[in-house]
Amino acid sequence: MKRILYTAIVISVIFASCNTAKFSLKERQLILKKYSEKIMPLMLVSNKPDSVILYTESTDFEVNSKDKKLKKLVDLMYHTCIDSTNPGVGIAAPQLGVNKRIIWVQRFDKTQKPFEVYFNIKIKKYSSSKSDGWEGCLSIPGYRGIVRRSDTIVINYDTFNKKNITETVSGFTAVIFQHETDHLNGILYTDRIFDKSKLYTDEEYHRIFKTKKGSD
Question: What is the pTM of this model?
Answer without folding.
Answer: 0.87
